[in-house]
Amino acid sequence: MECAREKQLTRVLNPSSIAAFGPETPRDNTPQETVLKPRTMYGITKVAGELLGDYYFRKFGVDVRGLRYPGIISSETPPGGGTTDYAVAIYYEAIQKKRYECFVREDTVLPMMYMPDALKACVDLLEAPVEKLVHHSDFNVGSMSFSAGELASEIKKHIPELKVTYKPDFRQAIADSWPKSLDDNAARKEWGWKPSHNISSMTKDMIEKLSKKLL
Ligand SMILES: NC(=O)c1ccc[n+]([C@@H]2O[C@H](COP(=O)([O-])OP(=O)(O)OC[C@H]3O[C@@H](n4cnc5c(N)ncnc54)[C@H](O)[C@@H]3O)[C@@H](O)[C@H]2O)c1
Predict the structure, then answer these.
(1) Which H/E stretch holds residue 14?
(2) Is 175:166 a contact under the CB 8 Å cutoff?
(3) On the chain, which terminus has fewer CB atoms closer than 10 Å, C or N?
(4) From the CB of 42, is ligand 1 less than 6 Å away?
(5) Tell me: the pLDDT tens digits for 146-155?
(6) In the chain, what are the domains?
(7) Amino acid 134: pLDDT
(8) Is the pTM of this model over 0.70?
(9) How far apart are CA 21 and CA 172, in angstroms?
(10) Residue pair 66/138 in contact by the 8 Å Cβ criterion
């Protein structure tokens, strides 16, 4: 942001996350304006980024724009071990091994988004006329919410032999402190956010793309 100010850059994208929320945040349909008291270092840096983005916009006119992304599911980047990455890893293991040990409970619900929608959100926000924006660095963007068990069932429609077991680790507590779904009306109103994928269209596309790559 400081570089952007010094060099008078046109725009800065600041990717925030649902990790900006914490256990005191309402978990269902989490509002745009709400309690931001995360307990992870990742979440704390995300809140700091959001606040700095808005500060740089108001104080210096740097056009910083940001989204609170949910868990991103992609066929291009392998899962990295983040709290939402069970929803990516399960596709790889389902295709390659027909079994998956999930590190959160079966009933764990988190908001997720398919990568094509994550890219669309980024481009649509960056292209929005600045005068339409009331918010800047902290837009909630929702897409779909499902439990780990629901995702397993959806994948089983394509790979019926899949066996999923559940062995929660330290990430369960983090998942339990994050929203289940997001109120993204500000994004819809201010820059026309509208996701195009749901759990079934995403699963069909993920399995097609990953099968070509992995098998
Ligand atoms: N993946 C998700 O589910 C998710 C969800 C919410 C928010 N986000 C946010 O979106 C952004 C991208 O996430 P991702 O999953 O693609 O991460 P990633 O780890 O795949 O990519 C991060 C990129 O940043 C680069 N990088 C790291 N430190 C750097 C530095 N000091 N200088 C320059 N480049 C550096 C890395 O080389 C890498 O290319 C992150 O800010 C992440 O917090 C991701």
Answers:
(1) strand 12-17
(2) no
(3) C
(4) no
(5) 999 999 999 9
(6) 2-214 (3.40.50.720)
(7) 98
(8) yes
(9) 15
(10) yes
